[in-house]
Amino acid sequence: MLSFLWSLIIGGIIGWLAGLIMGRDIPGGVIGNIIAGFIGAWIGQAILGDWGPVVADFAILPALIGAIALVFIVSLIMKGMRKSTD
């Protein structure tokens, strides 16, 4: 149970950092940050591997790079959706 909670915290921090680096808000607040962190970590580690420091089963650098890519893609999709409703 404690490792799951630790994973949620680290996933949220990774998602939050990705949003800060990109200068874009992640929809969903804290839950959105956690989801972006988890999905970004999965994408980053699948593409880049497990190099760099590892915390709570997250290879921090690939996870952060994957989360940044995810935030960028989601922001493009959200921007396109806003334009289509205008």
Automatic annotation (TrEMBL):
Keywords: Cell membrane, Membrane, Transmembrane, Transmembrane helix. It is a multi-pass membrane protein. InterPro entries: Transgly_assoc (IPR007341). The keyword Transmembrane helix applies. GO terms for cellular component: plasma membrane. The chain crosses the membrane at residues 6-23, 30-48, 54-78. It is found in: Cell membrane. Its main location: membrane. It holds the Pfam family Transgly_assoc. PANTHER family: UPF0410 PROTEIN YMGE. Belongs to the UPF0410 family. This is Putative membrane protein YeaQ/YmgE (Transglycosylase-associated protein family).
